[in-house]
Amino acid sequence: MKIIEEKEISTGDIVISPRPVWKCTGCREYGIRPSCAPNVPDWQDAVEWAKNYKTALLIKFGLEGSFHEDKRKILNWILDREKELFKNHTYVFALFPGHCTLCEDCACEKGNPCTQRYRVRPSLDAIGIELSRLVNIDYTENVLYSIIFLD
Q1: Based on the number of CB atoms within 10 Å of its own CB, is 116 exposed (0-12), middle (13-18) or buried (19 or more)?
Q2: Ranges of the chain whose pLDDT falls below 70
Q3: Secondary structure element (H or E) that encloses residue 88, with its range
Q4: Smaller CB count within 10 Å for the chain: N or C?
Q5: Residue 95 pairs with which residues in a beta bridge?
Q6: Predicted pLDDT at 92
């Protein structure tokens, strides 16, 4: 895992719509993981929530090894970064790139409650963020994106 880019963006550039959420319905994690729809606030609530922020960090991560290991490292890095940013931004809030993979053995997949619910953040798609409106997605790249809302 490596950080390719971290840049501040205006939240006014972030488009939230039902399109990514509908895309989520075809995923096997839909309704299972706590970071996934419909277990997160819906896209209309996300529109209202995002209006309360002016800036956010857009972070691009490169995957270098095992997808699952790198993604777990990325999620933990995002949570550490959120904690660090909390010192200067009271309402800082991070979003995960896709479904949660914090645990190697997900309790939710077995129908049990999440063991790390306090650490899980919604995924970008699950709350309706249209990532393609922020970046030119190159499907040949082995990357993930996250957004951390600042203030």
Answers
A1: middle
A2: none
A3: none
A4: C
A5: 147
A6: 98
Q: Residue 68, Cβ neighbours under 10 Å: how many?
A: 10
**Residue-level pLDDT at 124:** 97
What is the model's pTM?
0.95
Residues written for the chain: 151
- Cβ-contact 37, 25 below 8 angstroms: yes
Domain ranges, ordered by start, for the chain: 2-149
For residue 146, list its beta bridge partners.
59
For residue 71, the surrounding DSSP H or E stretch is helix 67-85
No. of H helices and E strands in the chain?
3, 4
- Give residue 65's pLDDT: 87
* 3-class DSSP state of 129: strand
How far from 97 is each of 76, 79, 110, 111, 112, CA to CA, in Å? 12, 12, 22, 23, 23
